[in-house]
Amino acid sequence: MQLTRKTSFQMDLIVINTLISMARYETFLQSLGIPFNWYVGKETKHLEYIDLTGPEKVKVFGNIQISLLPKSKFRDEIQEIWDDFWVIIQDLKHDFEPADVDPFKVKVSSWLTKFLTVYQAQDVTPYMHALYAHVPEFFKIWVLYPTRNGEVQ
Q1: What is the pTM of this model?
Q2: What average pLDDT does the segment 49-66 reach?
Q3: Which residues does residue 47 pair with via DSSP β-bridges, in sequence order?
Q4: Band of residue 21 on the pLDDT scale cut at 50, 70, 90
Q5: Which residues contact 115 (CB under 8 A, 6 or more apart)?
Q6: What letters, b where the CB count within 10 A reaches 16 and e where it falls short, cover 36-51?
Q7: 3-class SS of residue 106
Q8: What pLDDT, on the 0 to 100 scale, is given for residue 45?
Q9: Greatest alpha-carbon span in the chain
């Protein structure tokens, strides 16, 4: 198949947009003090990177900027989803009282519903499932039956 100028231009535009997005991502991570570089894998010969660690992921979620991604009709919704997720993660750090469990469950349920308006069900990770289906249940048990040194009080 012979490429026309238009097809060739579109391919080049895709490559340029990908490179711009990669540079923005790298700059974003480095602005957070997270060392990050792309490299070509020795065996795969594909562009690769080293996965972020737990503390690095926390930094990213706390400072996520969806506006750095290519334009999308869901950009604002995606930003809201991940801002709300960050609030939920911060809520997990607080001491829960019995009255806090149901509002937390509503917040997580609302977040997951919003998540599924932009993403597909197959994008829900086991961690998201646990956050939605099990964490509120564990909190209920924990606040109803507090322990001291592993013993029910």
Answers
A1: 0.68
A2: 86
A3: 40
A4: confident
A5: 81, 123, 124, 128
A6: eeeeeeeeeeeeeeee
A7: helix
A8: 86
A9: 77
